Each structure stands twice: as C-alpha cells, then as structure tokens.
Amino acid sequence: MTATQPHAYLRTKVMTASPAGLRLMLLDGALKFAEQGKVGLENDDYEAAYDGISRCQAILMELINALQPEIEPELCERLSSLYTFLYTRLVTAGRDQDSAVVEEVLGLLRYEHQTWSMLLKKLADENAEASRLQATPHAQPTQPGASPPNGSLIGGTVSLEG
User: Fold this and answer.
1) Is 104:89 a contact under the CB 8 Å cutoff?
2) What residues does each domain of the chain span?
3) Which of 51, 52, 127, 155 is most deeply buried (CB count within 10 A of its CB)?
4) Closest CA to 126 of 20, 9, 15
5) Contact between residue 59 and residue 33 where contact means Cβ atoms under 8 Å apart
6) What is the pLDDT of residue 68?
7) How far apart are CA 147 and CA 154, in angstroms?
8) Cα separation of 22 and 42, whole Å?
9) Helix and strand totals (H; E) in the chain
C-alpha cells in the first residue's frame, strides 16, 4: 500500500458522506486529537499535548462554522454553545496542563458522538423502510361505490358524506 492510498480512501469517504456523516467524522477526529492531547499531558509531552488540543479546537471551530441556524436556530444555538464550551475547556486544559479537563471534554465528545451515531442509524433504518415501502406494488384504486376485491377493505373507499 502506498502512502497516497489512505489519503485517496479518506478523500473518497469525505466526498461521498452525508452532512450528518461528515459531522460524525469530525467528531471522530475531535475524539482522536483530544485523546492525543490528554496522553501528551499525562506523559509530560507538551508538544503532543499542544498538537492534539489545538487540532481538537480546530475541529470544534469547524463544527461551529458548519452550523446552519437558518434551518434550525434553536438546535444550532445549543450546539454552538456546547462546542464553544468544549473549546474553552480545552484552552483551560492547555493553559493549566490539566489532563482531567481534557477527560471532561472527551466525555462530552463521546456523548455527542454516540448521539450522532444513533441519529445516523435511525436515518438509515428509516431510509431502508421507505425503500421497502416504495418497492411495494401500488394498489389500484377502485371506482366509487365498487366493492373491494375479496371483501377486504384494502383499496376500498370511505364516504365522509351524510
């Protein structure tokens, strides 16, 4: 495997992902880099700590900038507040060289990641169900007053008059 193959795979994955899938990938990266920052602090490797924390902060800023408040203002306000809080806590963790603060951020990021994972699964399940419904042959409508086939109610009419 050449060095460019993983980059090509990642590029394809990013280019074909849904917006929710991209958000999940960003959360994966934030978790990875926050963990790197935590381990760096615990091992007194301040270069690794700085690198991990600053990369996690960059991802949090991207998550904030990607919000679309014109679509769902209340949700975007809450997410913006959460991501801003996490960013601020990482500033504190780096300043105080406190891995416990990074662990706090990791806990919230894990929860956010789990939430988005469940959302993507629910969306996939709903899309699969919708596909199954679309694959079902459509019932032919009956003429008003006609009896449904085999005495069933499927395809029958209901009168709201009278």
Assistant:
1) yes
2) 13-134
3) 52
4) 20
5) yes
6) 92
7) 10
8) 30
9) 5, 0
Q: Are the C-beta atoms of residues 50 and 94 closer than 8 Å to each other?
A: yes
Whether the CB-CB separation of 142 and 148 falls below 8 Å is answered with: yes
- CA dihedral of residues 119, 117, 102, 90 (deg, nearest 10): -50
Residue pointed to by tokens 């500033």? 91
In this prediction the pTM is 0.73
The reported pLDDT for the residue numbered 127 is: 83
Q: Which two tokens stand for residue 27?
A: 């959360």
Tens place of pLDDT per residue across the chain (162 aa): 555 666 776 666 666 668 888 899 999 999 999 999 999 999 999 999 999 999 999 999 999 999 999 999 999 999 999 999 999 999 999 999 999 999 999 999 999 999 999 988 998 888 888 887 776 655 555 555 555 555 444 444 444 454
Which 8-state DSSP code applies to residue 72?
A: -
Whether domain 13-134 has CATH 3.40.50.300: the reply is no
